[in-house]
Amino acid sequence: MSSYINKIDLNEDTQTWTIYGTTTLQIDEIHAHYTEMLEFIRPEKRINLPFKTNGNEFTATISLVEIAKNSITDKKTPWNFSIISAGENYPIESDGPVTNKEFAPSNAFYQYLFEFPEGIVTLFSKPKEITATLANFQLTSELLTGEINLSTPIEPNTYSAEIVLKRRPFSALYLFHEQEEKFQIESIKVDSATFKIDLKSLSAKLLVDSNNVIDVFIRLNSLSTNTQHDFYLNIDSTIKNMIPREVDLETPKYSKLSSFVTGSNRLSFYFKKNYQEIVSLASFIEDENKIELQFTIPKNFANCELVIKRRDSKAKLFEYYIEQVFPIKKGLIKSGSIISRDKFLIDNVNKDNGVWDFFVRSTNNPDLPIFIPTNIDLSKNKYHSVFKNPFQARIIRNGANNLSISTIPASEQNSNPLKIAIMGSCFSRNAFNSKPYFNPDYKRFFEVTFT
């Protein structure tokens, strides 16, 4: 019950192929499809083809637009054809080569040719070898401009183009991206394109972590097939030394953009939060009942609040999901907040040896960390019990010199701890040190009466 083709017609005006063949089957459907071995990366693509029958003869029409939309972008795609009859799948074959010519439309990303490996009718769509090279580049705090040379000439009015900025979720994942932002390119020539991006229009959606790696692409959109491909921007050797730059941006507020050349000679950026030392700690007082903080906050900040956020691990980084908010009373010179111990870190799930960070939140500004000047000493702070929670908290200076909270499990009460004396150096005393990474639970078992 074989099905054979005997003729292939290409209509360049409608950009379709018509295949002619014979079969003894009752045809329910005709499919074009491809399947890769690694289906978890790219599941099977299947396209229903319009067809006609006349006795044992049939014709089917293949749309270049549909093939182009569903082909693999970075390697040759082998499309096979099948007849569906009574729920069974039968491949369309050839009992000998059928004359056809390679089709390479000027306004598409692929070139096409029918071949017949082992007698199976196969339409190969092969990506054209297009490369984009950055030949000119300028970066200021307001504008990003450049010129891109294309390796393959394109006809006028066949493509539109965009500059696309894509954020990697992790710097080592070169081929994976999450957020993206695109900017229209107005000037496209036969083999080049110039772009001009107003950086004031850059949004904060790419500014996820403190430091974000942003890869740059030119996106070509085929106007006839309604398909698009993204191409990295390779760096011309004559401008390689011009690429590294760093500028402060007006928007998003408190951010920096740094351009660099990757190891594979492509244009990328570091998009950084520049939040340090905008808000500072002016004074700190605490006792068993309350925590009193004073801050230096810019005068134009409105509706200020104190926010503490819990760190949650994200590989070697972290994100914030849980927070607690306290009011800030703003003064002429300094602003302050008084936190009662019975409201501090309540109603939240905490982790053993967790960290919470302090921020000041205000209208039309990102949440800003609270910088600790060198004249404020927090090294002698103690761990305090947290109201109705099985952990203790201590306010500290973190590695970035900002205000944070360190937590440890609360010591379980022991009505009869063993009384001991310690003789020796400070190293000997560390076995009875309640700080994290030492022995925070030692008071459950021992009472040091003499050192």
Number of helices: 2
Helix-strand category: mainly beta
Shape designation: elongated
Unreliable stretches: none
Short description:
By secondary structure, the chain is mainly β.
Walk me through what this model shows.
The protein is an all-beta fold. Helices cover 2% and strands 50% of the residues. It contains two helices and 34 strands. Strands 11, 12, 13, 14, 15, 16, 17, 18, 19, 20 and 21 form an eleven-stranded mixed sheet that branches. Strands 22, 23, 24, 25, 26, 27, 28, 29, 30, 31 and 32 form an eleven-stranded mixed sheet that branches. A hairpin with a 5-residue loop joins strand 30 and strand 31 (391-397). The longest helix is centred in the N-terminal third of the chain and has 7 residues, at 64-70. The protein starts with a strand and ends with a strand. The model has no long low-confidence stretch (mean pLDDT 88).
Topology:
Elements: E1 3-11, E2 16-23, E3 29-34, E4 45-48, E5 51-54, E6 57-63, H1 64-70, E7 77-85, E8 88-93, E9 110-115, E10 122-127, E11 132-139, E12 143-150, E13 159-167, E14 180-185, E15 187-188, E16 192-198, E17 211-222, E18 227-235, E19 245-249, E20 255-261, E21 267-273, E22 279-286, E23 290-296, E24 305-314, E25 317-327, E26 329-330, E27 335-340, E28 355-361, E29 368-371, E30 384-385, E31 391-397, E32 403-409, E33 418-421, H2 426-429, E34 446-450
Parallel strand pairs: 1-8, 11-18, 22-29, 33-34
Antiparallel strand pairs: 1-2, 2-6, 3-4, 3-7, 5-6, 7-8, 7-10, 9-10, 11-12, 12-16, 13-14, 13-17, 15-16, 17-18, 17-21, 19-20, 20-21, 22-23, 23-27, 24-25, 24-28, 26-27, 28-29, 28-32, 30-31, 31-32
